[in-house]
DNA sequence: GTCTGAATTGCAAATGAGTCGCAAGTGCAA
DNA sequence: TTGCACTTGCGACTCATTTGCAATTCAGAC
């Protein structure tokens, strides 16, 4: 997904503080990683990349959950039984949101599809139509490579 | 989803044998349960219901996986990090397939949506269009009750 | 700039879903 | 009816995630 340039350290700190989270080193490392990831990232990937920098797995976990609770990131299971984390759109709209995800059954690759790729037919049951109640769309199948 | 009447014990046995699985008591119990479940069932739900009948958790698990491997059932993670199993359409078409699933973020309830509720816009990338590569569609959000 | 309380971290231990090994039991084809 | 491969039950085990807690580090107040 498009990205509005690499955020500065101050940008990251601000984003954390705005969410009432302290800007600690491991937290910043996690946040930076999420900013730079093109698709949702699993805890394992994150921990593996961050371990060399000396951050504890439990700390990475807690931070991921903190970011999720604070509404900065979102935690999903894309159908392969692995939690993945993805940054949510921030105030200046530089991050995307609401796009469908596609997970390959074969290789496990996760990709983001453009918004609008999937249309939900309105059904008139209940006060809110289905479309308005949906917060996330996930498709599974074979990616082009594995086709 | 619609069901073509309660299957007889012999129906169940036949379905297993056709798949080269022995018709053992716990296997039949699991299969019957899946037939009667209106939506995908988690292992825990199944084990809890079948435990009183004396079936072991591990056995239930293995059977669920056997049925999946045999193509009788399908195993999915609907986004909440819980494996759920669902019967696939059998030869006489009495079971459904290919319908989207909706999982409530709030209460965790899983429901099946009618086929056609979700439309995938064709994108012209690759030899097969996206639509043709998708095997499953999952929506998440608030169910009507939790709305 | 220093201080202080509260938020965080790191480590180790706990938890829990799901899996595996193996001896005993059972379905089914001959 | 019989033999054997398939299954079961049970306990042990794995591995991702969580938790407890003492030590450390932020960030606002002085």
Task: Give keywords.
three-stranded antiparallel sheet; 20% strand; 5 helices; Dna Ligase, domain 1; 7 strands; 147 residues; alpha+beta; DNA-binding; homodimer
Radius of gyration over C-alpha positions of chain A, nearest whole angstrom: 17 Å
Write the CATH architecture name of the largest domain in chain A.
Orthogonal Bundle
The name CATH uses for the topology of the largest domain in chain A is: Arc Repressor Mutant, subunit A
Number of DSSP strands of chain A? Answer: 7
Q: Tell me the structural class of chain A.
A: alpha+beta
> What would CATH call the class of the largest domain in chain A?
Mainly Alpha
Largest interface: A-B, 35 and 35 residues
Major sheet size, sense and barrel closure of chain A:
3 strands, antiparallel
